[in-house]
Specification:
Elements: H1 3-21, E1 26-29, H2 34-46, E2 52-58, H3 66-76, E3 81-86, H4 88-95, H5 101-123, E4 130-132, H6 137-142, H7 170-177, E5 181-182, H8 190-199, H9 204-207, H10 227-246, H11 259-262, E6 265-278, E7 287-299, E8 307-308, H12 313-326, E9 330-335
Length: 348
């Protein structure tokens, strides 16, 4: 969007938010990702900061050191009402034994709302508060809905690629139908949301952060989600991202930039299979039976289509070696070379 068009859109959006909300309190469920952070900054710029409540849930399904980072981000935005909820045990218990992707997403979505309602009662917020979310246009499209929460095709039910917990869970739909949902970014794609974030003065490190799914790493652990698997994936993913940030692109449109800057989204996926391997002969030896990890790195602008980023073989070999050397539970690393379509960006 051009700056003038962006300013016009934001001015109209600000007025719409003010007219709809009035003096009612607003609660935004925030993850620390780009969408919810930009939504939070927008609400804080538009409304009185005293009426904006930002709630972050440490579900045990987040990135490494995420809770500490989120608190720092929210404080820098000038938030006065920050609520950190520690609820790892509740999420892992609810997901125990569950393996089907859509079921996992809906369990997580409903639990987000259940805990949010419990915390609202504990905080003493009035019943007429607004629930705000960082839902963007792509979330609705993949959930088979329009930004108004209706099916994308009025003649028949639209195709659902995957349910987004902040769009299509039954409790969220019920709240939307009651007129208690505020989704200021619903008409925008990811690249536009980033532009809005820059315009609002959010640090580039945050605005350029790779997308992270609302259900967290639960949809990056294929099969049952356990505390052990979360720990394994969290460590491996942190290594992958750290390596991308320190390595430089040797070709393409921006040689010299970090691979992290060149790539639109990168992450690791823990597969529900193990493979036989051997120890390094120094610190360990003999037969190993480790988990298989897949690395994913893609380029995109809005998330609706995506192409695999052509990582150099040397980078892949070195990153793989560091992961298997540091995270002993992982015995094999693969690289996902599937574009969207036919694959989605996330594996579940």
């Amino acid at each position: 969007m051009l700056l003038s068009a962006l300013e016009k859109n934001l001015n109209e959006l600000n007025q719409t938010i003010k007219n709809k909300v009035g003096s009612h309190p607003v609660l935004l469920l925030i993850s620390g990702g780009v969408d919810s952070t930009v939504a939070g900054a927008l609400l804080l710029k538009t409304l009185n900061s005293d009426q904006v409540h930002l709630m972050y849930m440490d579900t045990g399904l987040m990135r490494k050191n995420e809770t500490t980072a989120v608190r720092a981000i929210l404080e820098k935005l000038g938030a006065k009402n920050i609520h950190i909820v520690m609820c790892e045990n509740e999420f892992l218990s609810a997901l125990k034994g569950k393996t089907e992707p859509e079921e996992k997403r809906k369990i997580i979505g409903d639990l987000f709302i259940t805990i949010q309602e419990r915390e609202v009662a504990r905080l003493g917020l009035p019943q007429d508060y607004f629930l705000a979310q960082g839902s963007i246009r792509a979330d609705f499209i993949e959930s088979g809905l329009t930004a108004s929460g209706l099916t994308a095709n009025s003649e028949k039910k639209a195709n659902v690629i995957k349910s987004h917990h902040n769009v299509a869970s039954p409790l969220v739909i019920a709240k939307r139908e009651a007129g208690k949902i505020l989704e200021p970014l619903a008409q925008f794609y990811k690249d536009e949301v980033r532009e809005i974030g820059r315009y609002l003065g959010i640090d580039e490190e945050i605005v350029s952060r790779h997308p992270f799914p609302g259900p967290g790493i639960a949809v990056r652990i294929l099969g049952e989600v356990t505390k052990e698997k979360c720990g394994i994936l969290r460590e491996a993913d942190a290594i992958f991202i750290e390596e991308l940030k320190k390595r430089r692109a040797s070709s393409g449109d921006n040689p010299g930039k970090s691979l992290y800057e060149e790539i639109w989204q990168a992450f690791a996926v823990l597969l529900p299979i193990r493979s036989v391997g051997v120890g390094d002969g120094v610190t360990d030896g003999g037969r190993r039976y480790g988990w298989v990890l897949a690395l994913r790195a893609i380029t995109s602008t809005d998330g609706m289509t995506a192409n695999v980023y052509p990582l150099e073989t040397r980078d892949l070999l070195e990153i793989s070696a560091r992961i298997t050397g540091s995270v002993k539970e992982i015995g094999r690393v693969t690289y996902d070379i599937s574009n969207k379509p036919p694959a989605t960006i996330e594996w579940e």
